[in-house]
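sry for the spam today, last one i promise. C-alpha cells for design, 222 residues
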C-alpha cells in the first residue's frame, strides 16, 4: 500500500489546547490580535472557560510557529511582521505553490474544479459588492483547497504558514480592489490549467501568481 500521499481523511479529535490554538491563530490571522498586541493568558483562560494549562500549551505552539513572542518582563505579545523577510516569504510561496499545483493537476477531477470555481465565484461577488474584508479568507480557502489536493500534508502545512504570514502582513499593508481583481484573474489561469490536466501550465500559473503578488507587496512597502 502506498501511504506516501496524504488523504486528509482521518478523523480528528481536538483537545482544549487545539481549540484555543485555532481560535488564537484565527484572531492573529484576521487582525483581531494585531502585531504587538499583548496576550493575557489568565484572561484567555477565563474567556474560554478552561484552565491555564491548555492556554499555555496553545501559546507555546504559537510561539513555535513564530506567531507570538514570550519575554520574561513583558509577557506574551503577538510577533511583529518583519517586512524585510516578506521577499523571502514570497520566494518560498512561489516555489511551493508551483509544486502544489503541479501535484494537484495529477488528480484534478470535477470535484476539485467545482470547489475552486465556487471560491472564485464568491470572490467575484465580494469584490463586486465592495466587501474586501471577505476576500482574505476566501483567498486562503482557494489555496488551502489546492494544497490539500497536492496529497502531501507537509505542503498543506507550509502553504498554511506562508498564507498566514502574508495575511498578517496585509493587515498593516492592505491590498486594494484593483489588486484583488488581479488575484482572481491569476487564480483563473491556475484553474484553467488544472481543468486541462496540464501540470506544467498549472505550476507556471501559480508561480506567476506568487511573483505578481510579491511585486505588488514590495511596491506597497517601498
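last one done:
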Amino acid at each position: 500500500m502506498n501511504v506516501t500521499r496524504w488523504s486528509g481523511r482521518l478523523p480528528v479529535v481536538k483537545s482544549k489546547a487545539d481549540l484555543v490554538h485555532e481560535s488564537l491563530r484565527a484572531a492573529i490571522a484576521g487582525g483581531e490580535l494585531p502585531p504587538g498586541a499583548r496576550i493575557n493568558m489568565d484572561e484567555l483562560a477565563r474567556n474560554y472557560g478552561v484552565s491555564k494549562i491548555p492556554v499555555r500549551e496553545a501559546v507555546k505552539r504559537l510561539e513555535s510557529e513564530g506567531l507570538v513572542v514570550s519575554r520574561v518582563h513583558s509577557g506574551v505579545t503577538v510577533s511583529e511582521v518583519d517586512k524585510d523577510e516578506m521577499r523571502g516569504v514570497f520566494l518560498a510561496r512561489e516555489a511551493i505553490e508551483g509544486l502544489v499545483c503541479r501535484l494537484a493537476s495529477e488528480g484534478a477531477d470535477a470535484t476539485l474544479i467545482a470547489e475552486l470555481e465556487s471560491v472564485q465565484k464568491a470572490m467575484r461577488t465580494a469584490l463586486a459588492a465592495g466587501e474586501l474584508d471577505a476576500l482574505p479568507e476566501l483567498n486562503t480557502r482557494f489555496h488551502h483547497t489546492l494544497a490539500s489536493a497536492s496529497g502531501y500534508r507537509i505542503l498543506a502545512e507550509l502553504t498554511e504558514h506562508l498564507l498566514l504570514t502574508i495575511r498578517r502582513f496585509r493587515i498593516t499593508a492592505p491590498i486594494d480592489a484593483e489588486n484583488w481583481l488581479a488575484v482572481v484573474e491569476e487564480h483563473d489561469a491556475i484553474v484553467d490549467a488544472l481543468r486541462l490536466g496540464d501540470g506544467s501550465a498549472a505550476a507556471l500559473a501559480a508561480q506567476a501568481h506568487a511573483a505578481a503578488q510579491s511585486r505588488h507587496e514590495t511596491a506597497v512597502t517601498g
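Strands lie at 38-39, 68-71, 75-78. ok im logging off now
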